[in-house]
Amino acid sequence: MDIKRLRILREFADRGSIGAVAAAMHLTPSAVSQQLKVLSKEVGVEVLEPIGRNVRLTDAGQALVLRADTIIAAVDHATDEMRAYRGGSTPVRLASFPSGAALLLPRVLPWARADGVTVLASELDVGYLEAPKALADNHIVVTHRDVRAATMSDARVAVTELAREPIDVVVSRNSAFAQHDSVDAGDLADSDWISVEGGFPVDDVLLSVAAVTGVQPRVTQRLLNFDTIEALVAAGEGIALMPRYVIRNPGVKPLVLNGVRAARVYEALTRPDPSASVSRVVEHLRAAARFAAG
Questions:
Q1: CATH T-level assignment (fold) for domain 3-80
Q2: Would the keyword Mitochondrion be found if you checked this record's keyword annotation (predicted)?
Q3: Per-residue pLDDT tens for 55-110?
């Protein structure tokens, strides 16, 4: 089996269409289709089957993708090792949700550089179950989930827990709540809330507040940027839930939320058996997370 054809097969598994594979690999769709037909002949069984006007992996194709992951990982290990002999830096592509990137990357980038690894970072703000798709373009994806949500189970994804970050209630320093260091969920039933979009860990905690109080939280604003949320809370526009390590605005006070299990879990996603360079960056991410937690 040709390694290039196995890479094309894996790209199809990651991206889901011939056209997407062609665009990602700078090939024509007909060239992609032809290479996958040749691969089917090499293995003696069809790896794709028609579904309407499209195609999908057969059971044999799905099984071969798992083997392709193993073979490609072995080649990547060898390439990594030979690069170390030649000298120079090894690139590792990493995508992270924005607040995680701000917390971890300032330490991870120089630590990795000292190991001869150049981290090429980007931001990715998607729900937890959508995060593995980004492994099509990245070696590492840093994502987050609510502490009560199950970690993902996927034979093509290795999950490394990096940290567990408490989620606090933030209130204006001028609020009556600011006289305390903690607050019961029931005491917040009549508050105006500023939250993030649905599907992210902070909003999942807000749903738990609703379950505890029996009252649907009155969300007046939904925003993506925690700095903006803090600014509105400081101005007295409402209260919010925020991850503890990203709270910075002196105009707000964080309160421990009593009665609700409130935290988010940071995870690093990679392919199984990642290269030495990728593994080193994951270890640096864990170390940076421990540093942030104090």
A1: Arc Repressor Mutant, subunit A (1.10.10)
A2: no
A3: 999 999 999 999 999 999 999 889 888 887 787 789 999 999 999 999 999 999 99
